[in-house]
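Forum: Protein Structure Q&A
Topic: Joint prediction for protein chains with partners

I've read a bunch of threads here and the consensus seems to be that you should model interacting components together rather than docking separate models afterwards. I'd like to see that in practice. Below is the full input, 311 residues plus whatever partners are listed. Could one of the regulars post the assembled result?
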Amino acid sequence: MADHVYKISTRITRPMFIGVKIEHNDEFEVTSPPDWWPDAPKKHLSPYTLLLAASASCFSLSASKAAESLHTSFSNIEVESTGTMSENDEQIWSFEKIELTVKVTIDAASQKEKVGRAIELAHKTCPVANSLNCPTLLDYEIVIT
Amino acid sequence: MFCDSKRLFNETANLFGMPYDNHEEHRYDVTSNWVKEKIVSIEIEGKPDFEVATPSDFWPESPKATISPEDMFVASAVSCYGVSLSGISKRFHAEFTSFKIHATGTLQKGEYGWEFEQITIKPKIVVPSEKDKKRMIKAAERAHRFCVVSNSMKCPVHLDYEIIVE
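Posted by a regular:
Agreed with the consensus. Here's the joint model:
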């Protein structure tokens, strides 16, 4: 198995816009979000939405892996990730919390308990959540179709 | 200390799109949906959807042109630094011709599985004069201190900048 090393390059493309290059992918631009920069173009990702996207996708993929290790599966998983910032006494801003609202769909009621364990396991083992200072709060439901 | 007052920082933020103290709530929403085994989508209102996959170091068959959560985690830190540097250098009147930033993040086994051990951010900033270099040193360090993303990370985020006069 390869080393777990991730290399990213960025450059300034124009004032306030950063080009992000990830190996094998086209460069994409990132800028401040509209709540900090009212003139920000709406179609651009911000560093903050990238972090939340990392959190949401990490959880989904970790849940899939956990389900596999517990010999169960689900037919769908939807994760909504909401991040809230706050400022400390030294005027330093950071994420205060990330909330994950998860809806897992399964076909058989018999799998509900195992899938619940997989979701809890994913919450414990997601590398992104485990690398954050702020808490990642989980709220999930399992739907049987 | 230069530019340490809240007022000055808020001015910088207001001008260049960085966090400032306006007592508003700053919330961001992202949705991830299942696509297929080891691949999910990311949907953010008003932005194009894209797919995310388990990285190739954990899944050798991972499609190369699909980014991973780990890629995005490092990308969020380095792009946050870049956006901060772009704004703060202007506030510090530190001119630059260009800058490029390389960042590397590494995982280690933690108590509950994998977690980031560290991220190293290496900016290479080209400036036109020695005067700009002096100012840029302060801007480079200040951008690191105020980066929202690295301040939200548990792992150390190292800054190793190089400023070249050209």
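The radius of gyration of chain B is 18 Å.
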